[in-house]
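Following the same procedure, backbone shapes were mapped to integers, yielding the entry below.
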Amino acid sequence: MSQTVWLFDLDNTLHRAEAGIFQLINRRMTEWLAANLCLSASEADRLRRQWWHEHGATLAGLRLHHPQADLADFLRFAHPMDGILARLCGETGAAEAVGGLRGRKAVLSNAPSFYVRELVSALGLSECFVSLLGTDDCAYACKPDPDAYMAACAALDAPPECCIMVDDSAANLAAAKRLGMRTVWFGAHAHQLPVADCAARDMAELAAWAAEAVPA
């Protein structure tokens, strides 16, 4: 049997993006949309929210509805790393819990790869992971698009049925489950759902479930 591969979301899973990072990114996304699509600030904010709700990521909506858009420029502008790192708040117990999991571990994020690498490094988690995948590593596919998960599986040479997706989004977990992955709904709001094999409110609960679910 192939080795278990853990796929970790980044924002609101390995760190608390709602502590200020999301607000900064959302503001910058709105500014870019307004400037580049010739929209008012209110129209750009409405569109950003709409695409996030409809597609799981503002980037996914931009890619679909404006295929000529410079996606790399959008991501660079939306993720000012100095401001982001100043707001970084890691998830308590992440290094011990993630480091102790049996199997290979990777990050799969809808954020750009430079953001993933810098945050994982700043969190002191680089040694825990064999791969750090951003949306640009997945041809700009974003969860819950199946192409994002399959790109990760290809990069890691792992079939979906050997993977465990850990994410704070039920929609992302539902997509992973349809591909045959096991799933962990992570965060204070997590509770038992058909799309989740485990609901872990913190890293200690994740580690406890993993000790039973992944054999030595």
Summary: The first strand starts at residue 5 and ends at 8. The domain at 21-85 is CATH 1.10.150 (DNA polymerase; domain 1). The radius of gyration is 17 Å. The beta strands are 5-8, 104-108, 131-133, 163-167, 182-186, 198-200.
